Please model this.
Amino acid sequence: MAIDAHPELPEFDYFRPATLMDASRFLAQHPAEARPLSGGTDIFVRMRDGFWHDKYLVDVKNIDGVSELRFDPTSGLSLGAGVNMNRVIASPQVQEHYPLLAEACRTVASYQLRTRATVVGNICNASPAGDTIGACLAYGGILNIHGVDGFRQAPLASFFLGPGKTILQPGDIATTVHFPLPPAGSAGTYIKLGRNTWSDLSIVGLTALGYPDPAAVSGYRFRIVLASVAPTPLVAATAQDYLEDTPPSPQAFKQAAILAQEACNPIDDVRGSARYRRAMVRNLTEKALNKVYKLMENRG
Amino acid sequence: MATPTLTKKVPHPVGDSVPRVDAYEKVIGAAQFADDLQFGPGLLYARIKRSHLPHALIKKIDASKALALPGVKAVVTGKDFSGFLGLYLQDRNIFCRDRVRYVGDPVAGVAAISEQIAEQALDLIEVEYEPLPGVFDPEYGASPEAPLLHPDLGKYEVANFIFPEPGTNIANHFRIRKGDIEAAWSQCAAIVERTYRIPHVQHVPIEPHVATAQVDDQGKVTLWGSSQSPFAQRYLIAKALGMSQSDVRVIAPFVGGGFGSKAGVSMEALAVAIATKTRGRPVKLRLTREEEFYTAFVRQGVVTHFKMGCDQDGNLLAMENRFYWDGGAYTEYGVNMTRASGYSSSGPYDVPNVKTDSYCVYTNHPVGGPMRGFGMPEMHVGLEQCIDELAHAIEMDPVQFRKINCVQGGDTLVTGMTMHPTGLSECLAKTAEAIGWGRKDPPSAPNKRRGKGIALMWKAPAMPPNAGSSAKIAMNEDGTVTVSVGGQEIGQGSFTVAAQLAAGALGVPIESVRVIKRLDTDSSPYEWQTVASRLTWSMGNAVVAAAQDARQQILEVVAKAWDENPDDLDIIEGKVISYKTEESISLKNIAIYGIPMPGDQGWVGGPILGRGNFMPTYVTGLDPETGQGPRAVVHYTTGAQAVEVEVDMDTGKVEIIRGAAAFDVGKAINPDMVKAQIEGGFVQGLSTALFEGMQLKEGVLQNPSFVDYRIATSTDVPRDIKAIIVEVGQDDGPWGARGVGEHSMVPTIPAVANAIYDAIGIRVGAPPYSSEKVYLAMLDAGLVE
Amino acid sequence: MSNHLIAVTVNGEYEQVEVPSQMTLLQMLRDKLALTGTKNGCNAGECGSCTVLLDGEPVNSCMVLAVECQGASIVTVEGLAQDGVLDPVQQTILEHGGVQCGFCTPGILISARALLDRNPNPSEDDIHESLVGNLCRCTGYLRIVDAVKDAASRQAEVAA
Model:
């Protein structure tokens, strides 16, 4: 946040296009001047801070189908860009099939902010600290993107380029995020270490999802995503690979935690030091893996 | 003027937990705060051009482009205003004139037809600076090598109990020399020596500062602001502008939290100064939350060095303290913290040998001002941890150690003053009992450890010796009473207390009392400031005096009409009764129109208007070399606080499981509101213990928002806080009352630190005890790998 | 830059307001409709003082554009009491001493009302969590939580 933030939002034009194509065209015609608006919780803060100076905000959340939460027992879950986090948390289908997503959403800010904040917005904002991104990556999320050439799909795994940087181009609007059905028997957890008990940004965020897989040497696969310890949300690939080969045990989880620690690349900032973050990646990874394994065992 | 003595029966509703008189309008959204007042279409909006450098000379300011911007009505700079501001030390111009001294220092002000245009104008003001080396550490600042921030220190006007050292950055040096510490050290069985660096914190009122000013065509000023101190603002702003005080009118509606940040003058003078150039149009200035963090007062940082020793039996023998207060760019108000911490530097203990040097040092940091506790929370952080360490060093229970040493009535205090009766021992015993001292409960999980900690505190109102209060009481035709005070309602409940004291002293039910809820220096009676936890005591005395004055007038009128002696009459439940004849008459029949004499022989009486005032007259000066004198302060409120914590060994996170606190309030005028102060202060204290600290880097605040300056939320508080009231009466307080508003957060930080030590065996030093700080301390100590 | 004419229902009253694009719902309520009960504490979605109900759901009104509220129904603190009868959360916060300076109170009351609307029987943990977006510097929160608990049980009694 800037010490010289404006008292109110600077001037801009609000524009509500009738169709996605209208929106994409307008955005493409005004590169660096226009931005798609969904919940606005990040946009308004950055504009008031003076970091962003867009002349136009293009409200895309009420266009055809963008505000739908849809679950299909064969194809999975789709969250429109206008679906706020409280809806995600309250959805019985999300709670049943994608509980990790609900758990992660619940750690974001406050109830009243989550009335506006969206999962798609959290993804597009591409903060290394984004609380729901880990769950979205672990569930294999795929973004539907509408650009001037129509729709295309992009897996989240290759979506993030840096802090606030993504593959989105002028004219692109992320309309929905889609999740395939989660692997059978999966269990997950999001451990968020903030300064306060709730509502803070994370010093470290740890997402872990595990599931039985007879094809793996160890009989299990784990997906581990770290928040706030690298320029982008970080998939701890070496730790994942290790657990694919090593049968689950407290020792194995300890070793995987060390691998996750080695993979991260945190910095010192106002929220915490790199030294502390590194230690927390290890401790929380170990804790999360043990917890996830226990959840799977209890289920099995 | 008689104050109700301790022996007199306490009349209802004094001592009753009546509902707040201001709650209804607050829950329906009708209570007006400074930003809610409506000024119509003529209102202009101000923004401030601020220094982005911590220390620099101003070479040139060119505002011509800003003035040319359509919609801009005025641009002012330091050259327009030569006067000085300052409560204790007049070291501050309204706008910087030749030099900027902190990031945020006001360089120019703009008034425009909208906030946005005013913002645009700021960018058009060109300021040429010559950067100077800065001072970012008070110990360095006090050294001869440090660059000089106030070359004119010797010329500033200063209160007669503040002693600046011209040619240095030391704005005040307060000394205590009691006994002989050098001789005492050799008798000590244990000596502890520690240093604590306490970070700056911010008050974080949820309402940011707002001020609207208007200057009429005769030059008279009206200021509407969120203010704890309308009279002090009138005094200081008039002085800075070279005006008469009565030509400045300050109107202060409800205050959305103050905690000291809205005492004295901070941004209000900017609004007034700008309004002098807008030809009668009102000008509103509101601070953004970001500005609130670094341009309003902050609780100054401090480096405290303690050395203390005791004998084998646990008797404290000596203390040697050195405090370096980080006064910031201007120490006009905060400078008095040097003194307050000096005259209380022994803590609430009986110590025969004390040497204290307390310095207030100019730095290129935000301006240090008063905050809840006025130096005491910061000082007690180290003091109460050292006390704990000494107890452990001689293998004595920390509660027992405190019991042996804590101050009692009749003790000779560190300034030579004799202590008045105090219930500190009782506070200690009750707090220890409430927290289950000595009992070790198992942690809630295998990776957690539990501990308990306790701390004592004391605090005296820090103020000039003669800070005064006054009150008015008017009767209405319907028999109700209108109470008028100059002390502000900032959430602590002062209006409710005023109503209770007036009702009790006059003899009317609480429902019959109205308190005027908007202060106005043109009509409210004088009050120095709403600070120092002094209102219940000082303003309370004035209210009681006013009520007694009104009561006496009423009794004399009725006595004359009934041909009785006033001593045989009383006022009960809004009726005057005669104990002799058992006759009675309602106040509503006499308060305005008087009473006809028997046989139509004229009238007696007239509208009843009571007046009262209070000013302590007995506080004496202290010897500048030794800090000794007969009476340093009016009184001390004492208390104790204990917490139970759980430390997560995986993360270092400290959770407060429960808390208990007891304070000797003399007499609780409204017990429920006293408990609310004890709870609220506890949580503000734990917030500063766990989360808070301004991260200043070369004078630039790194966390100027709620995103990164975290305060306690509803999920960070323990579910169980036991608030205990102890009542050892104050000889000159209304029915024995003394203040408690600030005290409740004084001992929290060391209580938490001592509990963390009890849990993990590590002293974590200075706050905040963030999970990071605790975890890394455990890592460094080898407690975790 | 463009202005928009929008129609909204505020506390049950139909209103038409002309708003510039960048005007927040908070500004519209305070500056256009003089509903100053809703407070501006940070203008960044952090403190919760500006919380109002937007189509029944609590939002930080500083984080919503006025123009986005076309056709919406808004409830502010001024709209909680009905015909002079306080909402249970107003009554209990008053009785439990959950009000001190009163600046956070409007937002807290809206959050509490929203909680009881979606969960008439909240646990103590639910209440603490539901208030995490409403900063209070005076009370220490416990009396507010007690008040919400009490309001829930009073509401249940009325319903029974």
Remarks:
- The mean pLDDT of chain C is 97.
- The helical segments of chain C are 25-32, 88-95, 105-118, 124-130, 142-159.
- DSSP finds five helices and five strands in chain C.
